[in-house]
Design goal:
Order of helices and strands: EHHHHEHEHEHEEH
Number of helices: 8
Structural class: alpha/beta
Strand order of the largest sheet: 3-2-1-4-5-6
Helix content: 40-55%
Radius of gyration: 17 Å
Largest sheet: 6 strands, parallel
Length: about 200
């Protein structure tokens, strides 16, 4: 079985990073802050324009991409899942736009980060259209945190929603909320049994 896994917000705590480093960036620039911790984007988190969002992200993304650690126990759980005769497909939108990969090095940074954090995987896919990639590669379960992706992917296959403030309102028959990486593993076991029952 093929399992799809997002990076930002699932393998990493991007919201905490964005809040910490975005706060520094916007405080130093404006001398004040207006933080909405329930937001997903820098634009909504700090009530700024698209251009200010982009400028901030470009100033902090390289440090984040290289140095932000994986969430606790992510590597351990992914290895357990992989060792149960599954293939791991890392599916991320990071680097899918020229503006967030202006030097053309994001894929190499991602590969280096995955290796450094001992994330075992079979394939890395960089794409904004995650539902399309899930269907194209016959992904059976996707682990995701972004609202739009969860809503679209769950129309076709089960999604383990990694809990964040910005996605707390999401519910649906194909959506399984997880609060930690071992909870991801628990939900994966439930979904695996359900898929097996449906195939029999």
């Amino acid at each position: 079985m093929r399992i799809g896994i997002d990076i930002d917000g699932v393998l990493t705590n991007i919201i905490r990073y964005a809040c910490d480093y975005g706060s520094k960036y916007f405080f130093e620039k404006y001398g004040k802050l207006d933080i909405n911790i329930n937001a997903w984007s820098l634009k909504d988190m700090f009530n700024v324009t698209d251009e200010e969002d982009k400028e901030c992200w470009l100033s902090i993304v390289k440090n984040y991409s290289i140095n932000e650690p994986a969430r606790p126990l992510a590597s351990e759980v992914i290895e357990k899942i992989k060792n149960e005769n599954n293939e791991i497909y890392i599916i991320t939108a990071r680097g899918a736009s020229s503006w967030d990969d202006k030097d053309g090095e994001m894929k190499d940074i991602l590969i280096s980060w995955l290796n450094k954090n001992n994330i075992k995987y079979n394939k890395l896919i960089i794409s904004k259209n995650k539902l399309e990639k899930c269907k194209e590669h016959n992904i059976k379960i996707m682990i995701e945190d972004k609202t739009e992706n969860i809503n679209s992917i769950s129309t076709e296959l089960p999604v383990i929603c990694f809990d964040e403030n910005h996605n707390k309102h999401i519910k649906g028959k194909n959506i399984y909320r997880a609060y930690s990486w071992y909870d991801v593993y628990y939900k994966y076991l439930i979904i695996k049994e359900k898929i097996k029952d449906e195939e029999n």
